[in-house]
Design goal:
6 helices, single chain, two-stranded antiparallel sheet
Length: about 150
Amino acid sequence: MSATDPPLTALAQGWCALSLLHGRIEAHLERALQAKHGLSVREYSLLDVLSRQHDGEGGHLQMKQVADAVVLSQSATTRLVTRLEDRGLLSRYLCPTDRRGIYTNVTEAGLKLLEEARPTNNAALREALAEAANKPELAPLVRVVESLGVPA
């Protein structure tokens, strides 16, 4: 199969459309979250992921799991955690059963900011999807996203 074969070309075009949709949505979310809450998309995502942890056995995520959830390298995730910890939005502590493990929790201030930012994130997501739905190359992807139960 060569690079000009129709199936490969269609696949590449689909990937480009998906990448374009992601980029548009992320940029729209970034502007809204920064303007209203001083949060980046990554910071919001990290707070959201960590807020869904629970206390007790298996309730905390390891840094690798957190990194996977926010789609960052472990080192970038650690830097992001440090920035949010410096702002008082997260706290870290040693795992009580394995002193090598470090857990990260969202502070009360972090939970408050997350709850304030959630409506902004959801509204910006709806706006970005509505704008993208008007683009013929993106409309089919928007329908797929909406069918997955994403707030739209």
